[in-house]
Amino acid sequence: MHLPSRPPGTLPLAGNGFWFLQPRHKLLDWFATIQPVVGFDTYEISVPSLPPAIVVNDPKNVEHVLKNNELFIKGEFFRSRSWDLFGYALSALTESFLTFPLTNGLDLFVVAGNGIINADGSLWKIQRKAGLRFFSNTNLKSFINEVLPPFLGDTKEYLDGASEEGTIVDLQHVFLELTTRLMGKMAYDVSTFERVDS
């Protein structure tokens, strides 16, 4: 069995742990500097007290992982640590399957906390198929030409008003709100929204 290589600067005991103690932008800069060095090689990252992580760069290997997802189980360690990021929004829902009708006649299946990022096996395949159909060429054209312009116009109007009044605006909140509104319209055909100023 061939073990993946390690990026330059990996320390014997600390591995790559020092980079993970840095602010996030420095960690992302580190990944960007590693990329030209490793090219399309698959490599291992190690951080003390955590299981090793494998970084896959080669498009052929990425395709293999996506087509054979059942061979690459994320496991409970990953799911439990990524719950806040990928499962929090659904935590109030039941643990059983929920079906949401999409505006294009398809149904989207969701399991609380087991979105496509956290899902394994057959659940991952179901969600990937739903996602691929959701982001079809027809749906994306509809999104860009019909759904997006009014929401962007509304957001621009809000930001222009805040600028004229000299009001401080939390842009992260504004963009989260915009994304939520867009997904609500595309996925659930819900456009009712009342702005809550932060």
Explain how this protein is built.
There is one protein chain. By secondary structure, the protein is mostly helical. It is about 50% helix and about 5% strand. The protein contains seven helices and four strands, in the order ααββααββααα. A two-stranded antiparallel ribbon has the order 1-2. A hairpin with a 5-residue loop joins β3 and β4. α6 (about 135-165) runs antiparallel to α7. It is extended. The model is unreliable at about 90-110 (pLDDT under 50).
Stretches where pLDDT is under 50 for at least 5 consecutive residues are: 88-112
Helix and strand string, N-terminal first?
A: HHEEHHEEHHH
Helix-strand category: mainly alpha
What is the overall silhouette? extended
Oligomer state equals single chain
Number of strands: 4
From the alpha-carbon coordinates, what is the Rg to the nearest angstrom? Answer: 21 Å
Largest sheet: 2 strands, antiparallel
